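Worked example 3 (structure in, sequence out).
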């Protein structure tokens, strides 16, 4: 496990050296803060739920976010309890205030991918792929600001897609029974 942490930490530091530019930092920080507590995804989900035409997307996204909250933030983060990279490696540049939960997996990334994949799998292909790109940028922003290892983000991407797929499977299963 220590070797994985060393590789992940070294990769994070190298990525930060490559990515961080002063002229981008305030925009990246503002963008990463949009994902705090999944608030942006929750707000969009509520808006989708309001209108009959978009309600199916809101239901799928809301269920995906709920699954993500339970599994990712409720179970996995507490079970694995990985320290944040800035707590372990001196070379990590922390560009936002320290986070108060564990690092693995990235909740921001998992929420973004859960939301995007739920929208994509519900049938909104064009906007779904755009949201997948936004989700990727959310994950990248977490590395940029120094609060996640690349492995945290990669696992968050994978798990977020799984959460979105599970939500859509549940909805299809329930609809078949009606």
């Amino acid at each position: 496990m220590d070797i994985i942490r060393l590789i992940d930490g070294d990769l994070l530091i190298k990525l930060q050296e490559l990515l961080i530019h002063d002229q981008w930092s305030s925009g990246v920080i503002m963008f990463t803060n949009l994902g705090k507590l999944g608030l942006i995804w929750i707000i969009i989900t509520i808006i989708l739920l309001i209108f009959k035409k978009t309600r199916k997307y809101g239901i799928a996204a809301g269920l995906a976010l709920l699954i993500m909250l339970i599994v990712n933030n409720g179970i996995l983060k507490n079970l694995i309890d990985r320290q944040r990279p800035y707590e372990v490696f001196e070379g990590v540049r922390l560009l936002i205030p320290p986070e108060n939960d564990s690092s693995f997996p990235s909740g921001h990334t998992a929420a973004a991918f859960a939301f995007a994949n739920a929208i994509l799998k519900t049938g909104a292909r064009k906007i779904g792929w755009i949201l997948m790109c936004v989700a990727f940028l959310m994950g990248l922003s977490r590395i940029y600001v120094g609060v996640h290892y690349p492995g945290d983000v990669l696992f968050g991407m994978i798990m977020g897609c799984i959460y979105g797929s599970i939500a859509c499977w549940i909805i299809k299963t329930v609809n078949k029974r009606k």
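Notes: The first helix runs from residue 2 to 19. DSSP finds eight helices and no strands in the chain.
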